[in-house]
Structure formats: structure tokens, C-alpha cells
Amino acid sequence: MADSYVKTDFHPDLPPPSSEIGPIHWLRLNLFSTWYNSVLTVGAIYLLYLILPPFLDWAVFSADWAGKSNKDCTSGGACWALINVRFNQFMYGFYPAEHYWRVNLGFALFVIPVAALLIERVPGKKYYAVFVALLYPPIAFALFRGGFGLSEVETEQWGGLFLTLVLAIIPIAVSLPLGTLLALGRRSHMPIIRNICVGFIELPRAVPLITVLFMASVVLPLFLPPGTTIDKVLRALVGMSFFAAAYMAEVVRGGLQAIPKGQYEAAQAMGLSYWRMMGLVILPQALKIVIPGIVNTFIGLFKDTTLVLIIGLLDILAMINAATAHGNWMGTSTEGYVFAALIYWCFCFGMSRYSISLEAKLHTGHKR
After folding, report:
1. pTM higher than 0.90, yes or no?
2. Beta-strand (E) ranges in the chain?
3. 318 to 82, 220, 312, 313, 336: CA distances (angstroms)
4. Is 366 helix (H, G, I), strand (E, B) or coil?
5. Rounded Cα–Cα distance for residues 167 and 170 (Å)
6. Residue 158: helix, strand or coil by DSSP?
7. Which of 161, 189, 351, 363 is 20 to 30 A from 83 via CA?
8. Please, what sign has the CA dihedral across residues 290, 296, 297, 302?
9. Which residues of 251-276 are buried (b: 16+ CB within 10 A; e: fewer)?
10. What is the widest separation between alpha-carbon atoms in the chain?
11. Are 287 and 255 within 8 A, CB to CB?
12. Residues 285-341 pLDDT 10s
């Protein structure tokens, strides 16, 4: 008997309705999902309507882009001539102009290998890591300060964004490994090590960073032998590194405490030593958990570099303040602050976005 079957007309799949994909779906899902979200969206659009046109008129359409002083800014808009005239000073401080290439080369030698380490598919990561950790510091010191035939540039001439990045990158690089060791020491079963680490952590956390900088710059030389001097930038770097490490230690300790006890017991049951257990089992999990806290500490440290003005170091914000206080640029402080805010936002936003992408890649389980 022949198999019976029902004849069916097949049609190609129809595309989903426009309300389920594309811009319309995104708007409904993110901006108009509920009545109160719709009200907030409309209110935000109205505020942007009130704020953006005047701001764009001031910042772009009615702005003055060239000139040698504030007297050349006559349109009533922003006086961006300040940025054009003082740009090099904002970037390099008082570093000699004929040696700008040394600063540019120094940061290029840092950015390229770090970018290679952050990009997943780049081969030879261990060589880039060795270069950044071991070879780059003496090369950067020789380029920035002097050495290997290069003329010496005193740190008193350092300033602007160059100094800001130096004061941010070095403490960031030091704080994570030092903070991790302090966190492990605070959880140690040996009382002496535990108490030393607790004191090292709690003392900087009990005072503001400005006090630490003041102590490192003003008070510390009083305890040194007569005639002994320590570079002012070095003192700031040491103070900021210890301060950031204390906060980083508490962030890492939170991650260590979040690891279930069974993970420790399983590692010990496999016969792993303490350091192998931490390096292979515990710390990789703990650090993934606290990625947001780590990046938040980095961002806070980057912004706190503005406090070095208290000890006479001129970072980018201090250089802008000094420039706008000059008679030729009186009344242009708003333009200077907007320029500084844009620079800080670019760096901080970049760190934040990389943190989010790193969380997604490592599957930390946090909702975004």
C-alpha cells in the first residue's frame, strides 16, 4: 500500500516584523519600554534641546579658533585660540621643544606593546610582556630624564599631559601586584605578616591622598641625612603608588573572600603549594570577579593626579590654570576646563569600556 501523505505548500521564511528588529525594536526596548521610561526619554530629549544648541553655538559656530591673545576673540563664543597657542605647553609642560620626540617615542614604545597584550589574537604576547616589565622602564627613564648619550632634562621641566600620564601609569603598574601581595598578606595565618600588611593598608586609607603627597614631599626630607635630596616627582610616585596599593589590596581581598572554600580545599587536595594554589587556582578567579573594582581604582588614581599641584608639580590641569591666569588669556578658564575635561573623559571612558569588554570575554557572569 502506497504511503499516504498530505501535500503541503512550502513558502520561504518571511522576515521578522520591523518592530522586532532594527532601530524601531531598539527604541521600544531601551527608550519606550514602559510609560515612565517614555516620559523620561521625552524629558531627556527636551533637556538636550535646551542645552545642545546654545552649547554648540558657543563651542563651534561662534567660536574663535585663532589668535595670539584673548583680545583676538571677539565673536562672543569660545576662545579656542588658547588651546592653539598653548597646546605644546599643555602636552609637555616646560620640556625642551627640541626634545619632544623623546616623549613621543617613549610613550609609543609603551602603547604599542601594551596594545599588543590587550588584543587577543596578537602572537608572541610573552615577549611583549617581558619588554614592558623589564626593558621598557630603563628605556623610558633614559628617554625622559636622560642617558645613553641623551642630554639630561630635569623633572622640574616636566608638566602637562606628559607628567599626568607618568604620575598615573607608574602607580597603576605598581599598585596591582603590590596590592595583591598585601591582600594575600592580610589573609595570612602568620600574625607578624598579617599585622604588617594591615598597618600598611589601613594607614594610607585613613588619610586623604593630599596628605600622603604632602608627607612625601615636605615631611620626608626632614628625616633624611643633611644634604640628601630625593627628586620631587619620585617622591610623588612613591606616595601615590603606596596609596593606590592600599586601596587595591582591599579590592583584591574582596575577590579572595568571594572564592568558595571548596576551591582552596580542592587545590590543597591536589598537593599544590601555597603559591601555586594562589597563582593557578585562586587569584585567576578572584581577579576576574573584581575587574570593575580594579578599573575603578585605576580611574580614580588617574583623576587624583591633579592633586600634585599641592607639592609644586604642574600636571595638565595646573598648566591650564597657569595659562588662563596670564594677562593675555584672562577670562578663558572655561575653555581650558572644557579641554581638560575632554582629555580626562577620553582616558577614563577608554578604561571603562575596556573593562566591560574584558568582563564579557572572561565570562565573569555580571549582567551588563
Report:
1. no
2. none
3. 15, 24, 9, 8, 10
4. coil
5. 6
6. strand
7. 351
8. positive
9. bbbebbeeeeeeebeebeeeebeeee
10. 113
11. yes
12. 999 999 999 999 999 999 999 999 988 899 999 999 999 988 888 888 999 999 999
- What is the total residue count of the chain? 368
Give me 193's grid cell: 605578616
Amino acid at 23: P
Strand partners, 79: 64
* pLDDT mean over 130-136: 89
Name the DSSP class of 98. G
Closest CA to 346 of 299, 306, 314: 299
Scanning the structure block, which residue is given the C-alpha cell 593626579? 305
3-class state of residue 120 by DSSP: coil
Residue 210 CB neighbours (<10 A): 14
The number of angstroms, rounded, from the C-alpha of 55 to the middle of its chain's C-alpha atoms is: 28
Locate 335 and state its grid cell.
Answer: 575653555
Q: Is the dihedral of CA 125, 129, 132, 134 positive or negative?
A: negative
Q: Is the pLDDT of residue 53 over 90?
A: yes
Q: Which residue shows C-alpha cell 588617574?
A: 302
User: How far is it, in rounded angstroms, from Cα 89 to Cα 285?
Assistant: 44
CA distances from 242 to 181, 224, 255 (A): 12, 19, 20
194 burial level (CB within 10 Å; 0-12, 13-18, 19+): middle
Rounded distance, CA 321 to CA 78, Å? 17
Are residues 67 and 54 in contact, defined by beta-carbon separation less than 8 angstroms? no
Distance CA 340, CA 337 (A): 5
Distance, in Å, from the CA atom of 78 to the CA atom of 339, rounded to the nearest integer, reads 11
Distance CA 166, CA 28 (A): 45
